[in-house]
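Throughout this review, each integer encodes one residue's backbone shape. One record appears below.

===
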Amino acid sequence: MPAHAPSLHVETGTGTGSARIRDRVARALLVLAAAGAVAAVAGAVGAVADAGPATRMVETWRMLGFGVFAGVFLLLVYRPRLYAGIWELAILNKLGLTLAALSFGSGTDGAGVALIADGAVTLILLAAYVLSRGWTAWSTARVVA
């Protein structure tokens, strides 16, 4: 084959390069979300330590939930198109918390903070999901019998 033979691999201007950029932006957003979740864990340590018997368990559950979400976000950073259903569960959870905070309003302690925090995370997750095309994880998911 002559040295000047054309390559069979063709890249378009909107293909691989823009997909890499979208993935980098999506991953940066997910790292931001994970960092926020880690910060929430650190912030919740005091709430657990100060909690009385009536709220100690729920504060511990909340703190550990932040840790789980930090891990979920980091898994999505690592392989954004591998975990079918994880994107959607995370988005629905954060959207649900945002809507709950909105519906509870100022009459509920912490609703305003949750509205802002979970609302921001919902938007971050939606942007990262679209940028990384997270739904394509479903096309590679296999059921093992």
User: Anything to note?
Assistant: Residues 33 and 121 are 6 Å apart (CA to CA). Confidence is low (pLDDT under 50) at residues 5-14.
